């Protein structure tokens, strides 16, 4: 079964999900920052009342940010949990409208079940994590420095 996230290194090696997400995210940010326009400073969740507004709001950057967010979500939930939650979500909403909170809820349920098996609880629900990505402006930039004596993590926007 193919992975949700599949990226190959320049030498052709298949990268792990986490490495793939990091590489894709770095590439996306670098590309988007070069061509960044107004959409870099708006949230992912925007209402549109008219068809013409849709074309003004969504562009390559907003779609790229959305894809990157979903890839990161799939990586931290795990492929099995992500697919199960997404399948349940699509089946339950196949003939109707939906809002993002319904997707986050559908993805939280299988993760909660899996956490009981793994004995690794999710620190919060998916909604709380994802709202920071979809309702906030811009791109968060996280710098991780690995030192064996002292681990440091800093984040900035």
TrEMBL record:
Pfam families, A to Z: Peptidase_M1
Superkingdom classification of source: Eukaryota
Signal peptide from the UniProt entry: none
Protein name: Peptidase M1 membrane alanine aminopeptidase domain-containing protein
GO MF terms, alphabetically ordered: metallopeptidase activity; zinc ion binding
Peptidase M1 membrane alanine aminopeptidase domain ranges (all copies): 47-133
Alphabetized InterPro entries for the sequence: Peptidase_M1_aminopeptidases (IPR050344), Peptidase_M1_dom (IPR014782), Peptidase_M4/M1_CTD_sf (IPR027268)
């Amino acid at each position: 079964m193919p992975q949700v996230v599949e990226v190959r290194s320049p030498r052709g090696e298949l990268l792990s999900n986490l490495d793939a997400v990091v590489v894709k995210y770095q590439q996306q940010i670098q590309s988007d920052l070069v061509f960044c326009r107004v959409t870099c400073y708006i949230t992912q969740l925007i209402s549109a009342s008219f068809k013409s507004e849709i074309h003004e709001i969504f562009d390559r950057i907003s779609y790229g940010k959305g894809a990157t967010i979903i890839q990161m979500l799939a990586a931290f939930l795990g492929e099995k949990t992500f697919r199960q939650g997404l399948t349940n979500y699509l089946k339950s909403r196949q003939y109707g409208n939906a809002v993002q909170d319904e997707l986050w809820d559908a993805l939280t349920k299988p993760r909660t079940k899996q956490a009981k098996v793994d004995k690794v609880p999710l620190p919060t629900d998916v909604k709380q994590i994802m709202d920071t990505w979809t309702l906030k402006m811009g791109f968060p930039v996280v710098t991780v420095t690995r030192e064996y004596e002292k681990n440091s993590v800093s984040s900035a926007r």
